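Why does residue order matter? Because the sequence determines the fold. Keep that principle in mind as you read this record.
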Amino acid sequence: MGKRIFHVLLIIVVGFLVYSNTFHVPFYFDDANNIVANHKLKDLTNFWPPAGSRWFGFLTFALNYYFGGLNVTGYHIVNLAIHIFNAILVYWLVILTLKTPFFSRSTPPSPPFSKGGMGGFALFSALIFVSHPIQTQAVTYIVQRFASLATMFYLLSLVMYIKFRITPSLPLPPRGGGMGGGAVATRYTLYAVSLVSAILAMKIKEISFTLPIIIVLYEFMFFEGRFKKRIIYLIPLLLTMLIIPLSIISIDKPIGDAIGELREASQETDEIPRWSYLFTQFRVIITYIRLLFLPINQNLDYDYPLYHSFFEPNVFLSFLFLLTIFSFAVYLIYAKRYRLPASRFFAFGIFWFFITLSVESSIIPIRDVIFEHRMYLPSIGFIIVFVSAVFYILQAMIQNPKRSLVTCCLLLATAVIVLSIAAYQRNIIWKDKVTLWEDVVRKSPQKARGHSNTGVVYKDKGMTDKAIEHYQIALRIKPDYAEAHNNLGNAYKNKGMTDKAIEHYQIALRIKP
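Structure:
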């Protein structure tokens, strides 16, 4: 128990140090519409009765506003607390998984689960999660609390379900005494918390739709028992999958209209065909994997090409690579020679990565084809695979158990230190609007939105000439960019150039009445 407390304290300290320079990061980008200008947040009575697909996420922002107005520090404290708690849940997930029937009946234990490796495996999984730079967008960018908060209830639901399943089911005591009834009550309290957490996750962000699938996968990979009894446990959790579609559509409409509304809601933009979005995502997922291994050139607003054919080399080769990874996970499940605890963990981590990414990287077109915060939940699967692979390979190569464990810990501790420094440096860029948007236009020089937003930042700082320069660049790249024409009109108005301001206002109105 003392070792566990030390591990948790270490996770908290590392998380705080990595994000210690973020408490004054200003509101950015989507923060404006979702928080700053969202008048619904100003009155808590707007949140009862519960309504809307992201009800609980917006409720947390309303509570932030109630206690601190638009002071960004309070929002960042909550975001960081959620992130650190998620890291602790990752730690707990690994610890509990090692207690499931699949592992407890594995004899003899194999790397990384041989003596001495279990605590280190859980600790370094959590430390890499809390310190990885790819998480900065989900933590430092205030509105992306939706991703981290949904992940918190996602993990809590899974962890409570595992705890429920590994808690012994004791018979009810004879009337008049005994402890069996209390044990049963405690066990089903865990199940109730799992179910409520699943419901709350569904009311925060659409990525939670995959939670019941993960729980079913986990049940059949790590537990055993009578099929009918296991299905009874799973059915209530599976029914929570209805929450997101029912939150999107109007249930009082005829079934045909409701289906049409759901189809329309599942396509954020009609500018990108579904198949083009899917083909592009094969390439995007490769970029995500690269960022997980090598988190350099991170960008708030990527200028990513669209792919329209499955047989374009970048698309087809990316698909083959991803298919190979997924097929390897299936192979690890069924190949007898690899039915070891380590191989089962590898497979689960790979399945987790692909399943949790499926909502935002499949055939549901989203205007922005890539955003780093979308890796917040899927990264857990990658981290499980990476850490278990390090333990497995080094403990297999170095026969001395003590020496191999020390080598594993030193290697992973070095990785945590490097990742922590990289995340801290990335957060420095977030501290100021000028540095962040200059970083964007440096990395995406041919993307109009970055230049337009850089112009807005310069205009707010009174640097009107530099603002006009970036608006003009944005319009050279995208002449029909209504917002840039409007922004340029504002800049010309501020300089007293009324005729040129009117000209750009009129263009903006023609493009977007």
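The chain has a mean pLDDT of 90.
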